[in-house]
Amino acid sequence: MCSGLQTRTFNTSSTNSGWGVQKFAKRNEFEASNCLKNDAFTIKCTVLVLKGTRLRPTTPYGITVPPSNSNQQFASLLESGNGADVTFVVKGEKFRAHRCVLAAKSTVFNAELLGCMREKWTETITVDDIEAPVFKSMLYFIYSDTLPDFEQSSNNDGENKDLIFMAQHLLVAADR
């Protein structure tokens, strides 16, 4: 009973971060054993910490799930226009989009495109209060959860005016 040497491995990425004891001693057996000396007992633990060692997480049923690239797939869907069912006309420039994607990712578009607003029945929606490059960037963000790469042109002060312009207008558009 007193010389049970057990090795336990602790994995910080595991949801089970504790251990149980498989065999308990009854109190009278424990008090009668040679483990208790002067009403005290000692537990000896040796802890070894390995840095940099990573165990691969186990997957249910041995199936390895590939990392998601849905943001890239949605960006490609936007760029291709395949299956698009609504067109936005912004300052004369046309942008094809998908009602279901916009509705799923934006409560404003959900109300506008799937709710009781008149745009629900319209295939072409004219947008006058936003610049075309800003609208294009906003659509890209809605589809991909990332910002597009902006062309940057610096003025004499080293200030990236195009980037600042785009950021300001995207914030205004997102606030609507």
From TrEMBL:
The residues covered by the MATH domain are 1-47
Q: Quote the pathway field.
A: Protein modification; protein ubiquitination
- All residue ranges annotated as the BTB domain in the record: 84-151
Q: Which InterPro entries match?
A: BPM1-6, BTB/POZ_dom, MATH/TRAF_dom, SKP1/BTB/POZ_sf, TRAF-like
Q: What Pfam families does this protein's entry cite? A: BTB (PF00651)
**What's one GO BP annotation on this UniProt entry?**
protein ubiquitination
Q: What is this protein called?
A: BTB/POZ/MATH-domain protein
